[in-house]
Amino acid sequence: MHTATDAEPLDLHHVLQQSEKDIFDYFAEEVFSRESEETQGLLMNLSLLESLQIDLCSDLFPNLRCSASLPELAQKNVFLTVAGDGQSGEEYRFHPLFRDFLLRRMRTERGQAEVADERNRIAEYFLQNRKWEMALPYLLDAHNFERAAAVIAETGGEWIASGAFTSLGFFVERVPDPDLDTFPRALLHKAEIARLQGGTERSSTLLNRAVKLLSENGDSIGEAEALHSLASLARRRGRHAQAFELLERAEALVPQTSETFMKCANTRGLCLIVLGKWAEAEQQFRVALELAEGLSNEQYIRLVTHNLALAPGFRGDFGEALRWFKRIFRDDQPGKQLPQEAIGHLNVARLHIYRGEFDETERHLNRALELCQLYNLQFLRGEIFEAYANFYREKNEFTYAEQFYERALNAYEEAEIDVSSKELNEERAIFYRLQGDLEKARTLLESLIRSRETTANKLGVHTARLRLAQVELAGGKLDGLEEEIEELLEFFSRHNHYYDEALAAMLLAETYFAQKRQKEMIEPARRALDLSARFDYEFWLRREIRRNPGIFGSEDIFERLPLDLRQELSAERSVAPELIVRVPNSTSVTDLTVKVLGPVEIFRDPANPFAPDAWTTRRARDIFCYIATSKHRRVPKDVVIEAFWRDDDPATVEKNFHPTISHVRKALNSRQAFKQNFVVFRDGAYQLNPEPSYSIDAEEFEHFIAEAEKAKREKDISRFRENLEAAHALYRGEFMTGVYDEWAEERRVFYSEQAIRVASALAKLSLAEKRWADALKFAGEVLRGDPYREDMHRLSMKVLAAQGKRAAVQKHFESMKKLLSEELGIEPSAETRRLLKDLVSER
Q: Is the pTM of this model over 0.70?
């Protein structure tokens, strides 16, 4: 026995759940006992199935007359209902608690072994019909982990190729490690899922374990697949030398006509692309494409065809690259897009940015992000966010650009990807240069160059040096700049990097122009024009003409301009080269803004509001506000029900609760490309997902008040006023104006009282600082909320007296006296009367 002092605290939620279960079991037993023994057996057998499709039940239990029995049972058994949509055949479903009751009854009467045998039999039926996703739960529930591991090892590749790796990942996590080790190819699929979901280190650990086990088993093809996967990981982390070594080991284990050899050729091509070795990369891609066609591998045919666009894309032949890139998309099956198509949409979007085709850019970026989120491709999120940032930067929407650069940095870090292997810091340096923060851009690029030099990334070093030269020119540092740019220009020209060559040529022309060397300026400017005409860099050239009217207005250059571009030299279109766009100081990313102090406002991007009908019901919006403004942004489910369905019966609550929560989640993603889950259910409560960032005015209001009180204790008057004014600015009006539910009224009273405290403190502080107008304003706000506060009336009288308005003092007193008499039946306090006498008698 426990004494009262050492007893465990009562878990009311658990007690209520247990009571509900016990009551249900009582009624379930009543219903079950009325059935015949044959029907009881039927019900227990069917309880093994999640849904009861007539055809499926008849196949699995041919002797139980399911096609006749189920419709009859549905008419008299309250726990069996029709669940089909009328389109896919007749279907029924047990009430979840009744199904649990039947399963427990079946285990009790027949034993665990017989139940497991039945589950294995059902699993084999699904496996014979190639329905692996339906089979695995039965194998796992039967604790047949060895068979489950075998199925995953055999079919996991097809699951992943079709994009179903989230469900596969759920199943593979339930298989114990010893069983996976028995079928080490299953580890390959587990590792690939980890990589796709951003777990680079975990994926690497699993693959190394798989290599060892596959080698011990003599499975050379499986070992080669694992080595190729490790090489792919190394490539994504920018470790190209390691990737080449792993690819050579993999290729040595398999025939040159195999699928693994095809994958290795493709991955080697991707490494060579990054290193700027276009010809070698194209050769590898063509080897991979020939093998894919020989193997009739449609997925890899599209993938490698897409990769063949990388070389012209990196060279700067954007039109040619677009034609190749678009071949990855399955136009004949738009509803069945594969995860790899996210990369295709991303690359197409990048090319449209270069061409200034922003509508197409946004469309493909949105599609890339949708597929990335649909398939949880965490490794790709950083690149997509980076492209979004570049998109907004090119449109001069710098606030959004900064936010997406921050998102990209975070995403690369979470996916354990070395940013020096990506273009992010080059793009950020351009952003900082446009801001005018040349020192930050310079520091970023110098660090990037040092990092890339250690990895022998010659192309990356030269592109970063080009960006650094742009920074130096913007800062007027011309010493040695000409020689630096000439070296870069020669490198890009020799290696056929046409776009970078155009940038370098234009930069050299600008340098000569800044040095007043008009004659030398002409040749590089002409080279930039020739490259633009050859590869259609019209969008870039238009901007350069506007930035550098002095260069393009030169007679020798002007005559080479196409007629439609000459108008860009007009005064109203030209932009002085020294003009730098400045944006506000850096602000952190806010994923969701919630304003409840006044009329409710909820938005993610003020420039892209939710659809007018996003909140299908006001209740959905109010529930979200209730959660967002509760302590720890968290409310137990039963408390939500009590607040919003207090007078409704359980059936109504059951019908409406979850659809309402679903409406909340949908509303918060209305018209937003980047889908996020802001409301999650954990430990019996709904709460704001802690991963996104929020701006909730009620929280900030309380924070500023707490900071003001702290400053007051520390006698820091400046900080005291600063925090009071910040709190005052947030309070736009009563909490959730127009919402009169009991919970809202309680919070309305609290925030109103706090707002009066803030205004009162500001009034007193303004009086002490002889800021008469502010003192009257804040005192007036307090009195509008509480007209009987004599301290604020006295403060107003003091201010009027200080302004020399004796008559106004007397008038204010008489007005207050009348109010107190008529409304409360009292006279002004002695203190107020003494103050009046002192103020009126002063000369």
A: no
